[in-house]
Amino acid sequence: MANKIAVHCYSEAPDGGWGWFVVLGSFLSHAFIIGSYKSFGVYFPYLQEAFGQDAAATAWVSSIMGAVLLFGSLPVGALCNVFGCRAVVMTGSLLATTGLLSSMSVTSLPVMYLTAGFITGLGFSFMYTPCITMVGRYFKRRLALANGIAMSGSGAGSFALAPVFQLLIDNYGWRGSLCIVAGVALQGCVIGAFLRPIQLKADIHLKKATHIPSREANDGLIARLCGALDLSLFKMPYFTIFNIIMMFLSIGFSITFIHLVKYARTVGLEPQQAAFLSSVVGIADCVARLGYGWFSNLRLYPLLRGFVVCSVCCGLSLVFLPFAQTYSSMVVCCLFIGVFVGCLNTKITVFLVEFCGVERLASAVGIAFGVRGFSILFGPPLAGYLYDVTGNYNVSFYFAGGTGLCSSLMTSALEAHRTRNVQRQKSDVLGSEKSNEIPQSNVTADEIDFGDSKDLLIIRETSV
């Protein structure tokens, strides 16, 4: 019988302690995984030249990588519930390393879809989702700040890796550079070591209520994974609507990350200048996640309302990008895109915790990131097709910006509905307290402090 891993049990998230090492691990995970995906556009023109394919066909490499990264979140969330986050991350590190090393000797684009796209993307997914989940389990009151620090790694990685990838390609060729990237991917085993298991009191209550299978269960692996993947989350209307919103936003994000470098080179920029634009988006993303994570912790405004503003600004920035024809104007546009992308991504886990509860966070993150895979899969190839048809990237970026603006309309409707719900429930509770007719059993399990509800704006699913 395998030795059991010691698990620390807490009545609630400790909001610190070893949690800061978990934040460090998540930061490093974001820096490499998301940084690599966002910077992989540097390889785009070289792959297109090496395999002699058009933009639409070549874009499928990065699209499959990003889509599998997110699609994989569905089974990964269940795997975390069954085997633990640490083991899943280390397994993903080995998978990603295998995929990148295999891509060095590929001679056809369809095989590249398998190695760099599917295998590497699956490894990235195994490394990515558990790190997000663990931050949400170690933090409660400081979750926005901790999540902002952890997710700022993606911006830092994008800033550092885009020029590094270009430098490696210049010196070793695109095939040789993948060997070095694979060596970095192997360090995911070290990242996994930071993810010390933690058990919360809410986990025990959830296990009793839902009978989530344990490791010692005699059921088959597939049955255990299906039981651990909590699809009942789709019964929560706000969770479902929020996933649709993120799908629209992800279309715009993915088109920018994959086609930005190629667009800059079609305008006439040098390869290093074009690659540096990805770095500009990355550093703006990093600073925004840190700053917005701290600023939102002040609770000066409803979080969903801020999400609406950032969605509008991000969409407009993408729409205006084709009008930037000089290097300096493109840098300015990329700064704005990076800032608002960072602000939007910082709040995703915060919303999922509030919608679904920390005890169901692994499944919520898995599902939320999994459904966004459709956007990542089809967005960049569609933008590449529009480029092949029109001969320029104008329509592609108009489309990317339009999806961001559409998401802002849906978020506005969600925010308005949630505001009315909060106000109505606050009024009901205050009225009941005045008449002293409300029994203790009517208070929700989370004992919502309605004095702060106008700041949080989002409350756990109760009456809806």
What would you note in describing this structure?
Helix content is 76%, strand content 1%. The protein is an all-alpha fold and 464 residues long. It has one domain (13-214, 222-420): MFS general substrate transporter like domains (Growth Hormone, Chain: A, Up-down Bundle). The protein is globular and about 70 Å long. Mean pLDDT is 78; it is low at 212-218 and 440-464.
Shape: globular
Question: How much helix, percentage-wise, in residues?
Answer: over 70%
The CATH class is identified as: Mainly Alpha
Mean pLDDT: 78
Task: Name the CATH superfamily classification.
Answer: MFS general substrate transporter like domains
Work out the helix count: 19
Query: What's the number of extended β-strand segments?
Result: 2
Cα distance, first to last residue?
45 Å
Question: Major β-sheet, in short?
Answer: 2 strands, parallel
Strand order of the largest sheet: 1-2
CATH structural architecture: Up-down Bundle
SSE succession: EHHHHHHHHEHHHHHHHHHHH
Could you tell me the strand content as a percent range? under 5%
Radius of gyration: 22 Å
If you consult CATH, what is the topology?
A: Growth Hormone, Chain: A
Q: Low-confidence segments, ≥5 residues, pLDDT <50?
A: 212-218, 440-464
Number of domains: 1
Helix-and-strand structural type? mainly alpha
